[in-house]
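Our consortium's second objective concerns turning raw sequence data into structural hypotheses that experimental partners can test. To show how far this objective has progressed, the report includes one record in full. It was chosen at random from the queue rather than selected for favorable results. The single chain below, 234 residues long, was entered without modification.
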Amino acid sequence: MQAYVTGPVFTPPSLAEDPANGKKGTLALPGVWGSENWNTGAFDPETGIYYAVSMTLPTIYALKAPPPNERGEGKLAYGIDDYDTMGDNMSLYGPGVERLPLLKPPYGRITALDLNQGIKLWTVANGDGPRDDPKLKSLQLPPLGTPGRPAPLLTKTLLFLGESSYSVDTAGIQGPAHLFAYDKATGERIWQTVLPAGTTGAPITYEIDGKQVIVVPIGDKNHGTAWIAFALKQ
């Protein structure tokens, strides 16, 4: 941490290799991928509760001189290099120590907000996060949350949310990922399944022949794209 510039909100990017103070860039949160973004949340008009989906993912903003163009000229004095300043310590959770997160969990979360009263009702982690990492597994930690931009589906009693694919942005699952169902009143995780790849959009639901179906889009560069449908057993 001492190798990076830190400060209050709006602390600007700094030089990747600053001879004046030996710093390697500025540690910022939210990072380049934000906290709450285009994936949005879900709103229940009957209860006035909004379910916000957000993540914690810091970034190192480091200014470097860009490479010259084909004429040997540089168009800008500096550009931002926000990925390579931590080397092997950069991971799904951003910059860290031994590829583990710098900050407290949850790294991906759902927060229920009562808009009628202006109060937070509950927050739960979405996804297991790094709790099964060999360096943490012996601690038997609860779910820590997986960063990404998953989008939810809200029904009468449940909130469905997956772990997003890294194809959506660099914050997401590479490979198989979970789809969860939460009790929307309490945030309790009541069901989960493993998908071949992370989600790339919000689930949808409809009824066919008297049966309710939930369909979720998934995909990554190794699996390709697909739709997966779920229905209750009759």
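The partners drew two points from this record. Residues 34-56+105-231 form a domain with the Lipocalin fold (CATH 2.40.128.630). The chain has a mean pLDDT of 88. Both points have been shared with the crystallography group to help prioritize constructs.
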